[in-house]
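Key result, reporting period 2: structure in, sequence out.
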């Protein structure tokens, strides 16, 4: 039973870690991730406001 559980856990790690790494890499390679999370009809000044707020909060 423990061997089966350990095997499943290892398989899960082999799928989840590369998947998360790939998604993180694609978001970071696309440039600034802030516009990706904004609505499509938002104005440029609102994007800049959100980006500056995010930069201040991450310090």
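The corresponding designed sequence is given below.
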């Amino acid at each position: 039973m423990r061997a089966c559980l350990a095997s499943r856990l290892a398989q899960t790690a082999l799928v989840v870690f590369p998947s998360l790494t790939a998604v993180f890499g694609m978001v970071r390679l696309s440039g600034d991730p802030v516009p990706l999370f904004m609505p499509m009809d938002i104005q440029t000044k609102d994007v800049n406001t959100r980006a500056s707020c995010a930069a201040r909060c991450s310090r």
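The chain has a mean pLDDT of 82. Helices lie at 2-29, 44-57. This case is discussed further under Risks and Mitigation.
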